[in-house]
Design brief:
Blueprint lengths: L5 H4 L6 H16 L4 H12 L1 H31 L4 E5 L8 H6 L19 E5 L5
Helix pairs in contact: 2-3, 2-4, 3-4
The structure holds zinc ion.
Zinc ion binds next to loops.
C-alpha cells in the first residue's frame, strides 16, 4: 500500500467522471452505515483494486477534514467565534512520525489532514481561550 506514490495516485482523478464517482461513493459512505471495506469494494469498480484501499482511507479523511473546516468557517461567519482546529491521530502503530508529532496539537500552519496518502487523521475543534 505504501508503495504507491502521489503521482500514481493522482491517476484516480484523471477524468471528471472518476472524480464525480469517487465523490459520490464517499458521500454515500458518510450518509449510510457503509464500512471502509465496503467503500473500498465500490471504489475498486471505479479505479481498480490497486488503488482502492488507499483511496478509501485517503478520500474519507479528506472529505471529513473538509467538512469540519467548512463547519468551522460557517460558525465563524455567523458568530465571529474562531474555533481552534486540533489534529487527531488514531494513536496506533500505523500512525506515521509526522502525524504522531501533530497529535493533540492545534493546527497553526493551515495544513489539514490528509497529511499523506493513507492518512487516517482527523480534526476536532475546541473553543478559543477567552481573554
Ligand atoms: Zn495522518
Amino acid at each position: 500500500m505504501s508503495e504507491i506514490d502521489e503521482n500514481q495516485y493522482s491517476q484516480i482523478f484523471e477524468t471528471v467522471q472518476n472524480v464525480q464517482k469517487i465523490q459520490e461513493m464517499v458521500h454515500k459512505f458518510f450518509a449510510s452505515n457503509m464500512t471502509i471495506g465496503e467503500l473500498e469494494k465500490e471504489l475498486e469498480k471505479i479505479i481498480g483494486p490497486e488503488l482502492a484501499e488507499l483511496a478509501a482511507i485517503t478520500e474519507v479523511t479528506r472529505a471529513a477534514s473538509k467538512r469540519e473546516q467548512e463547519t468551522a468557517r460557517l460558525l465563524k461567519d455567523k458568530t465571529g467565534v474562531e474555533m481552534v482546529p486540533i489534529w487527531n491521530t488514531n494513536n496506533d502503530d500505523l500512525v506515521c512520525e509526522v502525524c504522531k508529532s501533530k497529535n493533540g496539537k492545534p493546527i497553526v500552519d493551515n495544513r489539514f489532514p490528509p497529511e499523506h496518502l493513507g492518512c487516517r487523521c482527523w480534526v476536532n475543534y475546541e473553543l478559543p481561550e477567552i481573554g
